[in-house]
Amino acid sequence: MDASTNYASDVAFTDVVKAIQARKGSRAAYGRMEAGGSWEQAITPDLKSEIEAQTSIFLATANAQGQPYIQHRGGPAGFLRVLDGQTIGFADFAGNRQYITQGNLEENPKAHLFLIDYANRRRIKIWGTARVVESDTALLERLMPTGYRARPEQVVLFTVTAWDVNCPQHIPQRFEAADVSAALEKRDQRIAAMEAEVQQLRALAGTPIAPSAGS
User: Which pLDDT does position 204 carry in this prediction?
Assistant: First the structure.
């Protein structure tokens, strides 16, 4: 393999990382991955669907001195929006007004998005660059979730460099409260329908219907 070849995964697999992989025995496997096409660089339709289904994300930045910072951002499904094959955007809601992420991006535009789907035990890592847009009212209105009770302050635009999907190992399975409530409601409706059907069958057979508990 030509050591001078550039791969999308080089955004994370630096020479030092590759040396560690070689020392610990995983370099050959990742070398085959690179030769087979490496990581994706454009947003695919499947990735778009997953991005726009998110209700909770983490955005990592670092300042000029390399000090890292991870910020949580959340909202209704669709608050994170794919604008084109390379760009993700979201309305940045007013918060505690520390502006650490914005300050970091002004010094160092490199950023990382970490998305995790607990229900399906899936995590997506997205490398790229990001910038804050403060004065584009039309874009802010476009990205603001309809009916969401928050004050939009500015826009964050994230340009994708590369992305990868991790294995589900060690991800605990958790479910959104709304999804659990919907599943329970569907179950209760099914139980009610089955009980009604049983009563109808008993009535047709002439079997007395026993009073339900609590009657």
Answer: 84
Parent domain of 55? 45-166
Whether residue 89 lies inside any domain: the answer is yes
Helices (H), 121-176: 137-143
Please tell me the predicted confidence (pLDDT) of residue 215.
Answer: 47
User: Does some domain include residue 211?
Assistant: no
Q: How far is Cα 39 from Cα 8, in angstroms, rounded to an integer?
A: 6
Can you give the pLDDT at residue 42? 96
Cβ distance 161 to 129 under 8 Å?
Answer: yes
Lookup result for tokens 């010094």: 107
Say yes or no: 81 and 144 in one domain.
yes
* Count of structural domains, the chain: 3
Of 63, 79, 166, the C-alpha closest to 111 is 63
Same domain, 22 and 127: no
Q: Put the strands of the sheet holding 87-93 in their side by side order.
A: 68-74, 56-62, 110-117, 122-133, 152-166, 87-93, 81-82
Mean pLDDT by 10 residues, the chain (215 residues): 74 96 96 91 95 95 97 94 97 91 98 86 92 95 94 96 81 66 81 86 73 55
At 76, the amino acid letter reads P
74: CATH: 2.30.110.10
